[in-house]
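User: structure tokens for this one?
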Amino acid sequence: MATIQAVTTASGVALADARFIDLVTFRRSGVPVGTPVLFVQDGARLLVRTAAGTGKLKRLAHTTDVELAPSDSKGRHLGATVTGTARILGPEAVGPALRAIHAKHRIAGPIATVVRHLKGQRDVIVEITLDAVP
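Assistant:
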């Protein structure tokens, strides 16, 4: 398992300091699907918030392997891609994870939460553990 601080982009920016990551999940056919997401570091793991019923959760239900890279809000990669394993956490993880995401992303985090809740969507937290970096 790699430490998040050890993973740096080509420009020397730590993955943990990126604003967004492009989270790539895989369809059953193996086709990658990338989604730019806000995230927060929690110890040796990354936490990502998504809405219940999204495609990425459906893809993670059958393939927990993921790729991620620092990105901008449109998913354009700003650095090196790393691999990891994702796990969908239970409802007890939502509150603490949202507080951490709101603390890191003081404007975008709360706005995204309000919009999601106005749409009647439930939050789900995905934990990502990075694979070893050579």
